[in-house]
């Protein structure tokens, strides 16, 4: 069982991902933006972050991932986005992102991706 933080301002994604991960017996917390994610991790130390690239406000999912990885160096990050991943190549090469899923994504595929990443540790 892993501790997973899901951050997306589109509640449909946080709700569906949360339900599927709980069914797989993971411990899951959700947040809708950078600030609420920072607040959540005060009491919840995640093994994995699943985060949307574009969050409300000035901070991106990549910035959140970098911030959390300074506190949790072993944190694995999955980025979810509606933006073409070709546009993100430079940023992704400079970040410790384990995987990227483009919205809308197949929930079965993201679940397999999560398991593969968790099994790497």
Explain this structure:
The protein is an alpha/beta fold and 121 residues long. The protein has one domain: Response regulator (Rossmann fold), CATH 3.40.50. The protein is 40% helix and 21% strand. The protein contains 5 helices and 5 strands; from the N terminus they run βαβαβαβαβα. A 5-stranded parallel sheet has the order 2-1-3-4-5, with helices on both faces. Strand 3 (48-52), helix 3 and strand 4 form a beta-alpha-beta unit. The longest helix has 13 residues, at 11-23. The mean pLDDT is 90.
**Low-confidence runs:** none
CATH homologous superfamily classification: Response regulator
CATH hierarchy: architecture: 3-Layer(aba) Sandwich
| Oligomeric nature of the chains | single chain
The fraction of residues in strands falls at 15-25%
Q: What does the main sheet amount to? A: 5 strands, parallel
- Taking all Cα atoms into account, the compactness measure Rg is 13 Å
Distance between the termini: 13 Å
């Amino acid at each position: 069982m892993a501790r997973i933080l899901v951050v997306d301002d589109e509640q449909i994604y946080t709700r569906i991902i949360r339900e599927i991960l709980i069914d797989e017996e993971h411990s899951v917390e959700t947040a809708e933006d950078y600030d609420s994610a920072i607040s959540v991790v005060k009491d919840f130390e995640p093994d994995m972050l699943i985060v949307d690239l574009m969050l409300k406000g000035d901070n991106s999912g990549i910035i959140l991932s970098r911030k959390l990885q300074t506190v949790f160096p072993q944190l694995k990050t999955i980025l979810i986005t509606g933006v073409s991943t070709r546009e993100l190549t430079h940023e992704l090469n400079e970040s410790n992102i384990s995987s990227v899923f483009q919205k809308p994504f197949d929930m079965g595929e993201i679940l397999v991706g999560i398991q593969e990443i968790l099994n790497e540790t």
